[in-house]
Amino acid sequence: MTSQAKSARNFLENYNPGDYPSIALTVDLVVFAVTDGVLKVALVRRGEHPFKDALALPGGFVGPEESAGQAAGRELAEETGLDLGRLAVHVEQLATYTNPDRDPRMRVVSVAHVALLASDGISLPKIAAGSDAASSGWCGVHDILRSKELAFDHATILADGLERLAGKMEYTTVAARLLPEEFTMTQLRTVYDAVWETTLPAGNFTRKMMPQLNDTGRKSRGAAGGAPAALFTATDRHIHPPLSKPQAPGSPAAVAS
User: Fold this and answer.
1) Residue 52: other Cβ atoms inside 10 A
2) What gap in Å lies between CA 194 and CA 140, rounded to an integer?
3) Residue 22 pLDDT
């Protein structure tokens, strides 16, 4: 054994983790889906203190042998019954939340993830509460954010998740992650309307999005006797120039313009 290896071993043998403050690590998941033209998020009603009976994002503590990503999948399955391994879902890390007062129990750092669940816009997988959740279900994102009735700092995490998704939709085809692999232009526009909480002009939207999509040559079955519509798949090409999100009436930018 080299002198450097001996020095490292001696250091670790005498190292005392108790000399430093204890910090717990958790994960929280913002699971988005669109149905009936509304952007939804998976929420649980907490069955235990703190914030007992309050709505919260699914999540929990990271185990000693887990990565944050592994814990995210496990906690989502335990609290909602949703299995990230079996669903058409896109997951990406959102941010790390470190406010010392975010959890009244102790110092807790949370690694939040955003998950985009593909759906046909009509139905969503049922959520079955488990673990320490008293109940769970899909809730309208914009209504929840207006009410601000979420446990911990989950309203902030949800708002950040929405901002991430809404912003990326301006210059990428990430909105297609909320749809089946093949989708109609109307379905894609419905996702934009739901996330941005607006109504986009159909003609302008189609002209802007066509260069970023592949026409499959196939058509959907017309609903209720309607005409079949062309089916598309998304590419990885960026939208340039970006598709600008309309400003909400009364916002500083809208007033300035």
Assistant:
1) 12
2) 10
3) 87
Does residue 222 surpass a pLDDT of 70? no
Would you say 206 and 185 are in contact if contact means Cβ atoms under 8 Å apart?
A: yes
Q: Please check the confidence at residue 111 and state whether its pLDDT lies above 90.
A: yes
Q: What is the dihedral of CA 172, 177, 180, 182, to 10 degrees?
A: 20
CA dihedral (66, 87, 235, 68) in degrees, to 10, reads: -10
3-state SS of the chain: helix, strand, coil percent to 5? 35, 25, 40
Is the separation of the CB atoms in 60 and 26 below 8 Å?
Answer: yes
The residue written with tokens 């500083």 in the block is 252
Q: What is the mean predicted confidence (pLDDT) over 213-237?
A: 86
* Long-range CB pairs of 68-74, under 8 A, 24+ apart, other chains included: 68/25, 68/27, 68/93, 68/111, 68/113, 69/93, 69/113, 71/26, 71/27, 72/27, 72/29, 72/111, 72/113
Sign, CA torsion 182/187/188/194: negative
Neighbours of 170 (CB within 10 A): 16
What's the predicted TM-score (pTM) here? 0.90
